[in-house]
Amino acid sequence: MPFDDLSLTDLTEFAKSRGGACLSTEFSGPNEPHRWRCGRNHEFQASPVLLIHGGYWCYVCFPSVSDQSGWDYDEIVLTDPLLHQFHRA
Q1: Could you list the pLDDT tens digit for every one of the 89 residues in the chain?
Q2: So where are the chain's domains?
């Protein structure tokens, strides 16, 4: 997906594919922070480039690799359709 052609509709569709929502009311550019909500109702800010190109999503559901709390994939896949396609319990 070329970032020059992104629109608010694209961000909304992307968020839905992750089980969440785009809370921003306008598209401010691919590298600018936008507001999001994941399927577990965590709200966060991130740029479309980071999320779409970088593969990131909610920082609460997916802590950094150095965070010792780990990722609860069995719980996350209940609200994230994209991960549900690939996670096998």
Answers
A1: 566 789 999 999 999 999 999 999 999 999 999 999 999 999 999 999 999 988 889 988 876 666 666 667 788 788 888 877 877 66
A2: 3-86
Three-point CA angle 10, 76, 29, nearest 5°: 25
Minimal CA–CA distance to 61: which of 47, 45, 80? Answer: 80
Q: Residue 51 corresponds to which tokens in the numbers above?
A: 């999320």
Rounded Cα distance, 42 and 72, in Å: 15
Longest Cα–Cα distance of the chain, Å, equals: 38
Question: pTM for this one?
Answer: 0.79
